[in-house]
Amino acid sequence: MEFSKNKDIFESYDLNVSLRRPDIILKFKDKNRTFYRLIEVKRTNDKNYINDSVYKVLGYLKDFEYCFKDTSNPQGILAIWDGTDVNNMIKALEQPVFIIQNESMEKGLIKILNQF
Fold first, then answer.
1. Which of 112, 77, 113 is nearest to 97 (CA)?
2. Could you read off the pLDDT of 79-93 as tens digits, one per residue?
């Protein structure tokens, strides 16, 4: 939480700042650079909840933007059970948040990892 831009808001109230973090942060490192990818997992197929979850991931990316300054898109990955289809994989991978689901999870993760 040390890099959170918004932790002071939570610490100003009786709110638990430690609850405001993504499910998984992956660190990638080679000789020349270090970068991170955020993963948020939601076991849902409800489109409204998926929409809300995309905004949650965008909020994490903004809150921790210092950590993601050297990370190309997609910086965040939303893993869902089902509920949406990728219309354009190339365009989807250019966005800050990439949604993967049950059926496309392996294909999507391979594409993201091959960017490294």
1. 77
2. 999 989 889 988 988
pLDDT grade, residue 19 (50/70/90)?
A: low
Cβ burial 48-85 (10 Å sphere, 16+ → b, else e): eebeebbebbeebbebbeebbeebebbbbbbbbeebee
What pLDDT is stored for residue 99 in this prediction? 94
Residue 64: phi and psi, rounded to 5, are: -110, 30
The 3-class SS string of the chain reads CCCCCCHHHHHCCCCCHHHCCCCEEEEEECCCCEEEEEEEEECCCCHHHHHHHHHHHHHHHHHCHHHHCCCCCCCEEEEECCCCCCCCHHHHHCCCEEEEECCCHHHHHHHHHCCC
Q: Please give the Cα distance from 81 to 85 (Å, whole number).
A: 12
Q: Which of 58, 97, 31 is nearest to 112 (CA)?
A: 97
